[in-house]
Amino acid sequence: SVVVALLINSLSTFEGGPHNGTRLIPKEAVPIWRTNELHWFVRFFIGYLFGVVAPVGTMTVCPTVVDWANVAEAEAAQLCMKQGRRCADMDNLIDLNSLFDEEIISIDRPKGGDPMRVTLLKKQNSQNEAKAPLILYITAADLLSEEEKNTFAARMLTTLLKMDSENSPVMESATWAIVEYRLAPEHIYPAATEDCVLALNHLVHNMGLGGGGIHIAGISAGGTLAMETTLKSMAMVDTFYVDAPVVPFPTSDGSKEWSMDSPSLRRNSYTRMPPVTWLEWSLKSYTGMETVPDVEKDLIFGTISTSVDITGGSMTVSEWIKRSKSTSLPRLILVTAKGDPLQDGGLAFKGVYEKVIEEVGAKNSKRNSNIKGEISRIKHFDTNSGHGGFYLFEPSVFQDVMKEWYSEMRSVW
Of 27, 28, 42, 33, nearest to 8 (Cα)? Predict the structure, then answer.
């Protein structure tokens, strides 16, 4: 009883969490154990342990704007973020080279600087074929750390490869490309998007990949980047897989600013996966906003706003319409999660894309245009294990999601 009591006491708060009294917690916030919609294991165990396993909340005390030319200031900022970024170290336990044929390429950036690294994975001993899919995987880095880059990639690609058969060897020669985009706060928006678009163009136009279909996948902030990369490369993309995207909402005062505030964020303000404090800190870091404690102390968590739309217009119907022209819209596989502060963002994107489909269909019907193939449809899965939890705690749902995406890939192939 003493051990259990001490454990409960130690895990009831976490470093970088909302409990320190410096900010206002939304009145709608519900303790994790009372979040009935969550999978029981997340609700009573991993939901509390996550703050220890992936201590990204520790980064919230770090500066969001840094003079990187100042060596002392830059080193201090890097040291401050080190503990939060160490969750990427666990990813090194996955040896991709033992599971797949692995090739690492470097792509020069047009504006100079360090080349971008892209890891290419293929089935072991597979042959190069022109008619093979390309999957551009945008890591779950949340723009700030290279989190779970290998873990998710290995699990998803292994599962898709197992779905192949003799009559349908879709993934036999497929290339899975992991983009290592520039991180914030070292590089603010739109650096990460530029890297993803650059990688896609290089792989398709310079390397000739994607003859059997081009697919984009992203989790969390990677999901947001998948949305924008698809929008800006629509003529190339056949499907895009978006899981738990980070989607700010327009503020209600008409000021043309965006914040993370939503009913799902307010309800799940006590969660550790991911902490709402960290989501706000990430938004500031990615958009170059200073942290101003004297101003922020009177603001409810989630209501800090920025003038930068980090979705790059992908939450705007007209942007999709403008780029759709006469090509069919990419098919969307969307995953959201109960208990996730970001759930409403994903659902909002679903609403936007549904409207895009409707308007594109109406426009082309009036013009009597023949659109090649079916105008896109959406397949949506709403899971029960919080942010990214279904990969581990809902295996049957994970299989269903992968089957649906595989089916879409096969139809393109």
Answer: 33
> For the chain, how many residues are written?
413
Per-residue model confidence as pLDDT tens digits over 215-259 = 999 999 999 999 999 999 999 999 999 999 999 999 877 778 999
Query: Do residues 122 and 214 touch, judged by C-beta distance below 8 A?
Result: no
Dist. CA 333–CA 410, nearest whole Å: 14
Give kind and range of the element (H or E) at residue 119: strand 116-122
Mean pLDDT of all residues in 25-54: 90
- Dihedral-angle region of residue 142 (phi above 0 means left; psi in -120 to 50 means alpha; beta otherwise): left
Burial 287-306, CB ≥16 within 10 A → b, else e: bebebeeeebeeebbbbbbb
The conformational region for residue 113 under phi > 0 = left, psi -120 to 50 = alpha, else beta, is: left
The two three-digit tokens of residue 82, written as one number: 């080190």
Q: What is the structure's pLDDT at 17?
A: 83
Specify the 3-state DSSP secondary structure of 126.
Answer: coil
Does residue 403 or residue 150 have the better pLDDT? 403
**DSSP assignment, residue 341?**
T
Whether this model's pTM surpasses 0.85: yes
Helix (H) or strand (E) holding 297: none
Alpha-carbon distance 266 to 273, whole Å?
A: 14
333 neighbors 379 (Cβ within 8 angstroms): yes
Q: What share of the chain is helix, strand, coil (3-state, %, to 5)?
A: 45, 15, 40
Distance CA 18, CA 256 (A): 27
**Unique residue bearing structure tokens 């002392």:** 72
**Contact by Cβ (8 Å): 390, 41:** no
**Nearest-CA neighbor of 32 among 246, 276, 302, 339?**
339
DSSP annotation of 58: G
Give 11's pLDDT tier (boundaries 50, 70, 90): low
With bands split at pLDDT 50, 70 and 90, how would you rate the model's confidence at 152? confident
Model confidence pLDDT, tens digit, residues 306-363: 999 999 999 999 999 998 875 679 999 999 999 999 999 999 999 999 999 998 877 7
β-sheet with 258-259: strand ranges across:
249-250, 258-259, 305-306
| 202/406 Cα distance (integer angstroms) | 24
